[in-house]
């Protein structure tokens, strides 16, 4: 399955990627295949308590220290504060008994009796009343009382979180995100409940924004390096093969170093010529001419046009073309299988794994000796955490094409991930030995070095990983993604921020359409506290996103960074920075 980034299984930490933009309380570096967290152990002994749901009222606000109760004489005389506390205690009893109207009245009495200067107690009374309103699903009243509590005590975690939940219930996701962001920072990202709410809201916001943006986006052709990398992942793809001798003018057949001119007026053959010239912007229009004229190469033109629609991120236009090719019983079976692979990959990008799996299975049925089917289905199985089935598909691909270095490397990576996540040291070592064998037998396979580097980074063998990335760069000096990975390695290995940023900047210089580079740069700028620059980087990545799902993820990162800027303005809360 061709993708803009290497296959990236879920990390063992189970942490959502948006946390990279919220800092998660500790410096974070993203490596493909895993998320590395430093100082993860902090607060684990309190996890059970922190994961508990905040439902009950309380006696005092946190973290404000309870003020002095005054002299014993005031207490004996029944000061206003003591009477307020008594009303609150009575309200707590009603609350626990499920008598919320009576509890609300008691908390209202406590608010009326409490001296205004006793801000800690007063904020508690408002928060307790909000808890009672919450039980009655009166979300507007919850928000009003929590706002009063937060005004009195800006770092009041319970009030902020309760208001966040009420805002989410009313569909005010932006304000909800700001509150839950403040809660996450105050809790040093140790409470699962608030983390889950933040994740939920960010995903909702990301999906909403991406749906609107993606629908109205201007088509954008990826970089030539990306396009060539995409097509190199197919070996049985007729449309990506060079022009055949019979398709060229006789006088051009012996010319070297020049693009051949094609005979006749075939739009498809002209499109193939433009592919050789890397003149990709003209391909869709030439394919359209072939299709509309009902030419000899209609099936090929439909598949090539669909492929470029996918490359520019227009899945809506691509699908009808793919459907037509798949349903052409008289078309070359390899064209139909290739269309099924590409539609299956498209379905996976759209988070429809069942449809995706179905297409790959049909492709295997109609063209069982097509190595591409097993190679790309193997990648799908990795994404679905079906590692054993993925290995089986890679084995089938290798059996059909023993010289497929890419399948060999990805099989090793699948075995490594299975052993690593299963905490099986002997199998991890076996997989690492497998990588050594792959790069020995296929020294020109850049992907082999790249995947091995990821595994070495997991094993904290940073020096060896760095050497592997250097080999990648030597083989593919125009591959921007490798520079991003090498830059991230410098941060993980040496905490060398300057070198890391220099390498990621180099990636952008090589390919100014590398969304992964902008996303990573944005993540690092968040960690440095440069939120405005981070948001700018995320927005650049959003404009380059190749699917609605990618765009939704990037919006989540951008929204997380923006929420942090708002929290910093309102409450002065900032997580640690690099």
Topology record:
Blueprint lengths: L18 H4 L5 E4 L2 E4 L9 H4 L21 H6 L2 H17 L3 H14 L5 H17 L3 H14 L4 H13 L3 H14 L5 H25 L7 H9 L34 H11 L5 H10 L5 H14 L3 H12 L6 H17 L3 H14 L4 H13 L3 H14 L4 H17 L3 H17 L4 H13 L3 H14 L4 H15 L2 H14 L4 H14 L2 H14 L3 H24 L7
Helix pairs in contact: 4-5, 4-6, 5-6, 6-7, 6-8, 7-8, 8-9, 9-10, 9-28, 10-28, 12-13, 13-14, 14-15, 14-16, 15-16, 16-17, 16-18, 17-18, 18-19, 18-20, 19-20, 20-21, 20-22, 21-22, 22-23, 23-24, 24-25, 25-26, 26-27, 27-28
Polypeptide structure, described:
- The protein is mainly α and 578 residues long.
- Among the domains are: 80-216, Alpha Horseshoe (Serine Threonine Protein Phosphatase 5, Tetratricopeptide repeat), CATH 1.25.40.10; 224-241 and 265-402, Tetratricopeptide repeat domain (Serine Threonine Protein Phosphatase 5, Tetratricopeptide repeat, Alpha Horseshoe), CATH 1.25.40.10; 424-476, Serine Threonine Protein Phosphatase 5, Tetratricopeptide repeat, CATH 1.25.40.10.
- 66% of the residues lie in helices and 1% in strands.
- The protein has helices at residues 19-22, 47-50, 72-77, 80-96, 100-113, 119-135, 139-152, 157-169, 173-186, 192-216, 224-232, 267-277, 283-292, 298-311, 315-326, 333-349, 353-366, 371-383, 387-400, 405-421, 425-441, 446-458, 462-475, 480-494, 497-510, 515-528, 531-544, 548-571; strands at residues 28-31, 34-37.
- The chain has a two-stranded antiparallel sheet.
- A hairpin with a 2-residue loop joins β1 (28-31) and β2.
